[in-house]
Here is the input.
Amino acid sequence: MNKILSTAPGRICLFGDHQDYLKLPVIACAINRFIRIEATPNKKSVFDFNLLDLNKKTQIDFKSDFNNIAKGDFLRTALKVVRKIDCIPDKGYDIEIKSNIPINAGLSSSSALTLAWIQFLLEAFGSNQKPTPNLLAYLAYETEVLEQGSSGGKMDQYTIGLGNLIYLDTKNDAVTSFKKPLDNLVVGVSGVSKDTFGTLSFLKSNAWKAIDKVTQIIPKFKISKAKVEDQDRYLNLLDERQKPFLYAAINNHAITQKAKVELQNDALT
Here is the structure.
């Protein structure tokens, strides 16, 4: 029946958390928890969704213009984005979505859904570009961040799209993959829901305010070049509320660079 299966993993950040939106690098890896999409043609002009984990059903008319899409509606936003590469749905599917990634727990369940959904769309309807992992990752980033005006960066989409353990240079999307296995890691889920949009917006806006203030006084200042040994010079230019955000950015970046050196001892690029 031309059934299509599409899966995508969750992810964790190891180094550089909340730094990708500052265009600083991150080290992250995919985990062995997955979202699964199972799609079967239904001879309709709609996508009928059965969200098994949420005990919810919904429907999307793929012929819609997809204007005024609600915040967080990545399914419709992705349909709008893939049209740009001539991925045009022309038949409906019954779509079951199931996941063992904890929802709203900081493991990127929403990005995993976006990647799996885009992967399905390109498989089912084709496009004018080869569906490489990098393309899938960028389309997911465009869906979740650019189109939706989100405060996030590229870490989630590229870690999930490329898989394994990676160092991502968020300025040019260059990726270094590592062959070191990370065994015996346990992810604990507190059960406390994460305010994704609110937290990211708060951290991003305050970090950039601190960076911009230093730059106004020291025009040649670059957060990507700032060194830990020079941080007191920069922190003294800020008020007490701004200091933690710049301190975190400088030190987080330094730790990420040290981690990269250690991992590159056995790197596979």
Observations:
- The mean pLDDT is 90.
- The first helix runs from residue 74 to 82.
- Residues 78 and 118 are 7 Å apart (CA to CA).
